[in-house]
Design goal:
By secondary structure, the protein is an all-alpha fold. It contains eleven helices and no strands.
């Protein structure tokens, strides 16, 4: 029996299933979802941690983009077998696990950046829990989550070293803008699946928003509660409004996620700064 691709292992994990465990594992699995990362990263970005938040977003999104490229390359099917409970229906392939890879990228980048033993223990525990939840839910084999977690740790380690040891050249605004446009175009053109297109749009939008905030010199301030609520409302309106537009296709999907992330990283800080200057905030 190949343990890394074993349905029997998943069945053994599911033998202890219960309605409570189903709910718990779904909740743990959310730690590897796009909504969790977006919420945490936006919170950091709006609390005077723009540079660190954009680096963390870069790590997670680049890691996820690579994950979707590998999924399309290997095109391995999701687990299936007699008696196996499938508690989620993901829209992409199985190998490697995107949840395991992204949660490892996120938390281990924090650990490598802060260099405290507690964060390494926390990263390992959370990665293990998310990986176990994906197997319990019947959507990944052991090999999927192990390789995904390994890739996530690698991206976290490599990019943490890159950001601390490599000094990037200071570019003129027009050159940085041209580089952003070219990078966004390449991400879009090489995205193999709709989930990869979403990641490409998110990364392009977040970086473009950060570039515009820096270019315009918007001050980095911690938002008050009502500013958070206004900002969250703006972002939610853009997200839901984009879903209601009856347009299809990869270009609009890219544009939707670009707008949501650019709204969070640029338009919300711009609105807050404008309101403060008018003394309405």
């Amino acid at each position: 029996m190949n343990l890394l691709q074993s349905v029997e292992l998943l069945l053994a994990i599911q033998r202890v299933s219960s309605p409570f465990l189903d709910l718990l594992m779904r909740g743990i699995s959310l730690l590897g979802s796009e909504f969790f990362y977006f919420g945490v990263l936006v919170l950091l970005y709006w609390r005077t941690q723009r540079a660190f938040a954009i680096r963390l977003a870069f790590v997670v999104l680049v890691s996820l983009y690579a994950n979707f490229l590998l999924k399309a390359l290997f095109a391995l099917p999701r687990p299936a077998g007699a008696g196996l409970r499938i508690l989620e229906t993901p829209e992409d392939f199985s190998f490697p696990s995107g949840h395991a890879q992204s949660v490892a990228s996120f938390w281990f980048f924090l650990a490598f950046s802060l260099r405290k033993p507690l964060y390494f223990w926390l990263s390992g525990i959370l990665t293990f829990c998310v990986a176990l939840s994906r197997m319990y839910l019947g959507v990944h084999y052991l090999g999927d989550v192990v390789f995904g977690a390994f890739l996530g740790v690698f991206f976290a380690w490599f990019l943490a070293r890159f950001f601390t040891r490599v000094s990037l050249p200071t570019l003129r605004p027009w050159a940085a803008g041209a580089l952003l446009v070219l990078g966004s175009l390449m991400l879009f053109l090489f995205a193999p699946t709709p989930p990869a297109v979403k990641v490409a749009g998110s990364l392009s939008g977040a970086l473009s928003g950060y570039f515009l905030t820096t270019l315009l010199g918007l001050r980095e301030r911690s938002l008050e509660l009502r500013a958070y609520l206004w900002g969250a409302g703006m972002v939610l309106a853009v997200y839901l409004g984009g879903k209601m537009v009856p347009w299809n296709g990869a270009l609009w999907l890219f544009g939707r996620y670009f707008l949501v992330n650019c709204c969070a990283t640029f338009f919300v800080p711009l609105l807050v700064e404008s309101m403060r200057k008018r003394r309405d905030w």
